Batch of 3 targets.
Target 1
Amino acid sequence: MLSFHAERQMIPHPILLEARQIASNQILMTYDKRTDLASATNVSNYWIRSNMGPVGIASVGMNDALTAENAIRPNMAMITPADNSRMRYILTFRVNAMSGVMYIVLPCFVNLEGMTGFRGENWGPFSRNMFIGM
């Protein structure tokens, strides 16, 4: 019998390829596969970790566990499709990223197009999901 974690990883799911800051308050996120629009644009499915703790656009510090309470909130940011690919999204914050601060984008629960129910992380060892605020 597989462990919960191993079993969860067998469910096909999109992986974040890159998170890149494109404006002082915007991040362009690119997935490797077409995503379910509802889960990909649900801002509560995202966390931003920072080496300075939860400041600026960050919702969690380096050692904080990801919980529903410290996910990005709708009053902090919104996500919109960058195009019709269902693979590229723009995360726009109400505040600017702090210059020189390291940020890591951590999406969870984003499903493949036409699917629901994925309950894991959407990043992997090759995700370029870290950037330094400009």
Note: The mean pLDDT is 93.
Target 2
Amino acid sequence: MARKMGEEGNPSLQSPLIPSYEKSLESRGGEGLDNVDWKRDITDEVKKQLWLAGPLVAVSFLQFCLQMISVMFVGHLGELSLSSASMATSFAGVTGFSFLSNQAPRLGMGSALDTLCGQSYGAKQYHMLGIHMQRAMFVLLLVSIPLAVIWAYTGQILLALGQDPEISSAAGLYARWMIPCIFAYGLLQCHVRFLQTQNIVFPMVISSGFTALLHLFICWVLVFKSGLGNKGAALANSISYWINVVLLAFYVKFSPACKKTWTGFSKEALHDVFNFIRLAIPSAVMVCLEFWSFELLVLLSGLLPNPKLETSVLSISLNTCSMLFMIPFGLGGAVSTRVSNELGAGRPQTARLAVMVVVAVDLTVGVIVGSTMILVRGIWGYAYSNEGEVVRYVAVMMPILATSNFLDGIQCVLSGTARGCGWQKIGAYVNLAAYYIVGVPSAVLLAFVLHIGGKGLWMGIVCGLMAQVLMLSTITLCTNWEQEAKKAKDRVFGSTIPIDLAS
């Protein structure tokens, strides 16, 4: 018999999309997974995750669309404009976005909030969510300053790395016009983590959807009507990110749903900053090691024969996989929230069930998406370019991309589990081994030694993904969930600030 979603009916903008359920696996007389009604528990867990993952997929896709729309507009200005904008976007991801948070589409320092806010919410230490978010905003804004300086010298850095001079110069100009993005980006992802860990996701869908629609108009004006060309696309990114930040900030401040978790700015956020950094740095390293390996493909493609073609196709491939990755990314965000909430609430077996459910859902989705990619391989390239050579090359790449997307989906939900548990340091070691001992060397071998070209670069990363999935699966299967719940309790109450000080 299906359970009701809550006493007050359907969720609204002022309430979490996922109400808490009074009954849990542990509340039934302390029963474990072996003695419960599996069908009912699995059904409940699937409903919770889909209600959470669906909007998160939409939010992730809509936010990612900002950069994708900009690249598409620029692509119709010519091959040089496309390759330079793609190179600049990749460089910005490597040196900036991946450090901070969740678009592009991985998580960096901001993913520490998945653990801290999620477990605090599960333990009903609501006032700590606002403190954690303020602390994250302070740290990420400070980190953004040196990253902005790096962006200002993008052209010179790319030239020093041996990239084509013409592409490097245009990419440097594009990156300089994107500098305002990085500050908005960090603040945006702090708000996203803050809301997501409370299961409040529908308002983010509205703000992201409105911003994406507005971004189409802004890009059209700045790219084609203002005479700015590719510089206009970069400026459009900055404007749109700031619009999204302002919308979510207003919601957090004025929504009754955040009344308990946001009590205003507090000097207490400056206390215990180093404990946040100790979790945030492994979070950034875990993400950057993976993200850099994908972006490195674009940089390496510039060293292949016919670099404009290789760079354009590899950039299209990366954008395609990043867009499709939003589905498992939403599932990964859902399981991260579910695991962190349940561990914080002291329900380890429910957290374990959440992991089992999300893996099964992801495998199903991965097969469907991969099959669709193969079916549309002959026409997909036209979305980015009118060049016949580019379109044909993209068609050859699609089966390889389908394989990598399937494996990337599995690692995404397992990485979401790691964030929910606070395993960022372990994840960093896994990614280091998977991508830099297996993936990147394999890519270089296949592309430059065996002369397979751009296809070889991506096939090498597939090898790294296989190693990553194997290691994360082993770690997850060997997890002691009762011990993880104890660690979550120690983490939450070890950093708790008394309510009278936090108000």
Note: The CA atoms of residues 13 and 203 lie 6 Å apart.
Target 3
Amino acid sequence: MSIEVRIPTILRTYTDGAKAVDGTGDTIAALFADLETRHAGIQERLIDPAKDNQLRRFVNVYLNDEDVRFLDGISTKLADGDTVTILPAVAGGALEAHTA
């Protein structure tokens, strides 16, 4: 089984700069474990052991454009040919001050 994993810029140091890598696994958790075998350190950036090995708060993961948090989280099932996209959450900014 082959799953394409799209890697955000901030995590490409773990994939030698690759924008996408292939992985295997029947769930998101198994896929991340597989990625860790070839890209040491990446799993720690995605999974929070202090939160029962769930996705880190500021990491979004999409399976074929569906947010896995609305599916089965890291237990979401995968199939051959699926695409998983990892995106860091974006927050912050400032309101622009308006003058009269």
Note: Strands lie at 3-6, 20-23, 47-48, 54-55, 59-63, 66-67, 83-88.
